[in-house]
Please model this.
Amino acid sequence: MQLLDPLFGSEAVCGIFSEAASLQRMLDFEAALARAGASVGLITVAAAEAIGAQCRVENLDTKALAFAAADAGNLAIPLVKQLTRRVELVSPDAAAYVHWGATSQDVIDTALVLQMRDALAEIERSAVELCHQLSELVLNHRGTPMVARTWMQQAVPTTFGVKAAGWLDAMLRHRERLAELRTRLFVLQFGGAAGTLAALGKRAQGVAEALARELKLGLPEIPWHTQRDRVAEAGTVLALCVGSLGKMARDIVLLTQTEVAEASEAGRPGKGGSSTMPHKQNPVGCAVILAAAERVPGLAATLLHAMTQEHERGLGNWHAEWETVPEVFRLTSGAMVRAVEVIRDLQVHPEAMRANLDKSNGLIFAEAVTMALAPGMGKPKAHQLLEEASRVTVSSNRHLRDVLSEMHEVQAAFDKASLGALFEAKDYLGSSEQFIESVLQRAHEADKKNTR
Amino acid sequence: MQLLDPLFGSEAVCGIFSEAASLQRMLDFEAALARAGASVGLITVAAAEAIGAQCRVENLDTKALAFAAADAGNLAIPLVKQLTRRVELVSPDAAAYVHWGATSQDVIDTALVLQMRDALAEIERSAVELCHQLSELVLNHRGTPMVARTWMQQAVPTTFGVKAAGWLDAMLRHRERLAELRTRLFVLQFGGAAGTLAALGKRAQGVAEALARELKLGLPEIPWHTQRDRVAEAGTVLALCVGSLGKMARDIVLLTQTEVAEASEAGRPGKGGSSTMPHKQNPVGCAVILAAAERVPGLAATLLHAMTQEHERGLGNWHAEWETVPEVFRLTSGAMVRAVEVIRDLQVHPEAMRANLDKSNGLIFAEAVTMALAPGMGKPKAHQLLEEASRVTVSSNRHLRDVLSEMHEVQAAFDKASLGALFEAKDYLGSSEQFIESVLQRAHEADKKNTR
Amino acid sequence: MQLLDPLFGSEAVCGIFSEAASLQRMLDFEAALARAGASVGLITVAAAEAIGAQCRVENLDTKALAFAAADAGNLAIPLVKQLTRRVELVSPDAAAYVHWGATSQDVIDTALVLQMRDALAEIERSAVELCHQLSELVLNHRGTPMVARTWMQQAVPTTFGVKAAGWLDAMLRHRERLAELRTRLFVLQFGGAAGTLAALGKRAQGVAEALARELKLGLPEIPWHTQRDRVAEAGTVLALCVGSLGKMARDIVLLTQTEVAEASEAGRPGKGGSSTMPHKQNPVGCAVILAAAERVPGLAATLLHAMTQEHERGLGNWHAEWETVPEVFRLTSGAMVRAVEVIRDLQVHPEAMRANLDKSNGLIFAEAVTMALAPGMGKPKAHQLLEEASRVTVSSNRHLRDVLSEMHEVQAAFDKASLGALFEAKDYLGSSEQFIESVLQRAHEADKKNTR
Amino acid sequence: MQLLDPLFGSEAVCGIFSEAASLQRMLDFEAALARAGASVGLITVAAAEAIGAQCRVENLDTKALAFAAADAGNLAIPLVKQLTRRVELVSPDAAAYVHWGATSQDVIDTALVLQMRDALAEIERSAVELCHQLSELVLNHRGTPMVARTWMQQAVPTTFGVKAAGWLDAMLRHRERLAELRTRLFVLQFGGAAGTLAALGKRAQGVAEALARELKLGLPEIPWHTQRDRVAEAGTVLALCVGSLGKMARDIVLLTQTEVAEASEAGRPGKGGSSTMPHKQNPVGCAVILAAAERVPGLAATLLHAMTQEHERGLGNWHAEWETVPEVFRLTSGAMVRAVEVIRDLQVHPEAMRANLDKSNGLIFAEAVTMALAPGMGKPKAHQLLEEASRVTVSSNRHLRDVLSEMHEVQAAFDKASLGALFEAKDYLGSSEQFIESVLQRAHEADKKNTR
Model:
């Protein structure tokens, strides 16, 4: 475990990409390859079993592996050497068949695909959970009025339900994207030295099919050693996901500011406290999410850049993926797990929302009044009139309603009660309800689709 | 037209994102909004027509617009003002209804969606054309042997058909991605001041539906002013596409090196010549593609980063999209159009490929010999023996076959003719044919799906 | 002018990188090259004059140039052709000497250096002006108490002067960096076909020296066609600068939030208004700065990435610089000019700052009380006591002072007046004054250094 | 040690940023703070010693620390808690003074500065060593002719000395940049809760000065908690450095291609071998450098992006630095160490360079002939004539000299011997010698400056 894993990553995904798990996945490939070879008669079942029996990470000298990789240029070469030596001790015959027909990149890429499959399952699980939490939040606050803010300025009323529905809506699209990714991504890498499987001769297809079956992976049309769109796509789909989580966290931290105080991350002893300021309750969960949103785009760009790999094996650009892909998964999973926590425990303060709705001296209802005046006097004139009244409101620090009530164009249009009624947030929510309904409906359908 | 548009962009896509076309798309939104309003009785048909009649880019003072945008913070505000003034001259009544119920971002985002729809159609058209060109290239060279290179070193034999099939395979996946993108991306943006459509009251849904119909766009569950995953996804899908084009161009420029000379970009007078070196024939098309592959990842990262937009309207991050999205489309389209040209006119030199197959003194057949010896002596021993023979080959500058023929382990295994036969590229191509077949089959299916 | 130039760029720098100015700079190189040739007797003075006379951008057919560049792969080749044809009409003899000894990249890079020199002068001018504005702001508000915020939560008191001094401090470092950049960046590019100046034979050094003199550029040790650290450094130094401007803008927009209201961007008719909400006053200047801070890092990364250029001329990666470098300068200059405006016109609201200091019910003085109690009871115990009191303060919505006054440990330590005195912001400002003094002193020294 | 540290990092720098070393650096800060407090009489010398005695990483429960950091939001809070508890066991009095006056970020940032100082010393040491290796390479090959390549096509002759001098020239500028960075970067971070040092009252400056002295760091004008230009600058300066290393590695791998074979990375048993192809000798060192050049730009962009930190403590963006900065140092140091190795052991093959000079049938001398003909017939005509002759050369596969010798314009200009003499690489090297001289001279001066 890295020191900052509990802060930035999820336990599950950090585990999947741990050194031991990564090496084990490479050994899983070698074991499956041996079994596949046996299944087509390329090697004996006994040899396959002898190889398989040694394919345990505990058997490796990982420190020696690390140093050998510095010379070899990748981990697979010394791993295969160590494995071969182990098998030799038990069965010199079997040793001859270790890694038969495969190249280093076959091992490394397939192991990565297996890890990405496990990690994506975790991330999708969190995404589903997050959608559930968000749906509940939307339901609970569909009628909680608050102020909408554009350019970080109070604009017009909305509800907290609408805001949360926006977060949910994006997350539903990410679930779609994650699903679409699967068929392209969960495929075997198996091409031999340079992508022709020549070393396996006529048995190549048989071995490839058996190997894919063993690992429960799809068999691609052709090896993809230097066609990295699959890997880069995984990075970008996760980056999109993190971007939306970052938007949600950005909204929440803005709401948790002392002066706004409309929401807060739940605290608990030891969480979010300050080393010097005993009263502080820091939004740690959101900070973690925002840190991911700050870092993942650059990592995704690296994966996109690294796609221009040379001929049949990339030189440097392939290497650039090795630590970048796990990092993207780690940060995404960490952000996702935190998001579930933040939303689950979010403390919403409707009374503060209500208080902030009053903070602009009625200016957030300027549009409502404009639209009410527009049918009578035309929108341009109404707009102009409200601009004037808004200016007076600001300079005199009076309520817009009072300023308006003294203007004769307004008097001509409304009596006092009608004017006052225009300043009710709950009556100026437009299609909020319908929007929420549509999003919740889609969430419901996503779940039905999921369980099928 | 920008000075470097013909070099870096495609004519079609540069046109779609030209200043005039961009402003016209915003005016198209305003005209459609007026018609939508009329269709639900919000405004009169006459007013809608009066507004629509003025929605022509020729009516705008674009210079004034540009300066006003610097103060307003976006183009839509001064555009609506100019439009309103124009309509006022003709019909003061109609002027009152310009932009009714919409916010600046509704105009700007929807116009962008319309442009992206047109631009993606162009890019997909090019992608289809590129797949056709690549299929033909694969077919023509399925039997053209060449050397496969890993780490930029000669490795084992392959065919040019396999290499080109790899390029085609990736492009087929990009067509899938582009198709999946459509339903998410081609939707209306319409939320009014802060996403509730409150200004339109009960007629909001009717106007929204009519507006979507007018513009032939989908109606999203909820406005998405600060949920930017749709836009960022467009950027990343194009970036993936450019990455694969870059890989193809990288391969080609490596092949066109004077010392390799296995392929060349077709020249024509004025194309690829040097200002000082009359003999030069520069791969200009590939340079353009590689430039795109160098630039688009950073732009995609910007779009991903910009997703954390505040509350109901982004501040700075939304603005960051405005020039970035068109740039991504421009560079992608330019790279795509060049790729079609490069592949269509590519000059392939099979004789040079053949000559380069001979350049390693037989070393590229080391694996073939290893695999032939392995059944007899075990792979580790075979591998070791070939390492030794390879060293001697290099140090003595003799042919591997000759070195091997003097080793008694080899003599024991093969007679001279059998040994010689191991050095035939065409007999060491493994599953090349099947891989090519599978990819071409998928290309065929993609076309059938496309035309349905 | 581009439609969004007035919004995102500065007039001066957009002018410097306009198409006409860019082409003129290339022609300036050709004219200077001719004069340099004449000065060492390589060509006649008459020929140099004939060439120089044609080196005016008005003489070019820029549209033809744009299309020719698409084939040629750069603008210099067709530009030299057009220029040569023009010279031929006047003096066929002189035409023979156009571009003598230079390569396309010599023209393009040197023109770029000349533009960067002009643009950096503009940016430095703005930086100096910004430092003056900031110094004044610091002076005016060195004693204006406000709340410091960590994790976007109220923390302890500070002054607005300290905050602004932080902005100023960074900007002073950027002026240093910009100055250090100059000697490395303002150098000639002149290497001929592949960096040896072979075509000029023995006169090469003479021409190079004369050319550098003509253009008032340094003469580098060796041509740097594919050593791009100079160009990339310019990009990163500007990116650092934009990052600090972004930090300043981020602070300001947080202060301008309706609920905080401690500062606001000055409005004027047409500036920052909303299309639908007449009362809105949007921080347009800060949005422009933040948009730059969002975009420039990705562009800088592109320049860094593009450094791995091949052999003696980059392929694609050099091309990737052409639009990226001007974009970085444009966005930086735009952000800088806006920053000057924003700071010059910034409306600071000390009364709101004061009001916000009271908003936490005294919690922002928790540290002050802790430190006052610590000498007596030890810091851990004091910290614990304040944590407890803070909790009670929050749950009971009472003032921390009142909660504390009831705790006997506190009563034991302070009388009521002494306790009350701990809640004075102006008495808990620590070294604020000294910090401000040091920064202003450095600002003063920077100006003295500048004028020397 | 991470599994891929020996491959991608340097031992020294991986050690400096190891978990243990990082935590120790934070403890070093706490110990120094205690001593500084004692030096101004804030705490007793005995307390300072008691604290200092516990400041050993072995005393920490790092696993507990990691989990606590997930709640606390950073490592410093739980570290201070653990330290305080340890001190309490020994001296409850002293425990009260642990971390006195400091905030978490003071600890974390100062520890980072100390690590960066150590790591930069390592990187500069490597840079100096690399310059020495490069100087020797330049000297050894100042007269080794080879072909210069533009657009990856053979262009004109140059020498390997000139190419290596270009690499050296860039590295000398990086040494300058690294030196300039020092005074800005090696400063204390010490501001207390929110940058005013209020908790230390009148003794603040005394403590700060003593603390800076203790740690041998500069004392900045003002704390820089959210002014991150220093940190981001370190990232960009290293990124520039890596970019130039990447350019060098790119050149070398292009030279090591089987078909070019002008250079090769030295092999040794276990280095660069292939798992399937016994004859392969992969340029592992260059791959590592290129991987760094692929990754660091995105990481630098993250640091640039993360500069817009909020108010007095960043939220998420500061967190984004924590793993990014060490990664940049690790990759840079790894690339640097590999570069030293690659250059030190580089095998240069002058005979292959010579052979490749002949590969174009004389076309690389086209410019030389053009320039020789130009004085007589004018450059345009000469250029045109050579274009024609080049075409014939290519289509007829004859030598350019032979083609030219049959053209009467050429016969008129030269006799056979004079024509032949134009095809000597060593006579068409222009200012190569002077360029090399200038660069070596600067390298010499850099060393003198260094030792002063």
User: Anything to note?
Assistant: Chain A touches chain D through 72 residues (CB under 8 Å). The beta strands of chain A are 145-150, 153-159, 263-264, 347-348. The longest strand of chain A covers residues 153-159.
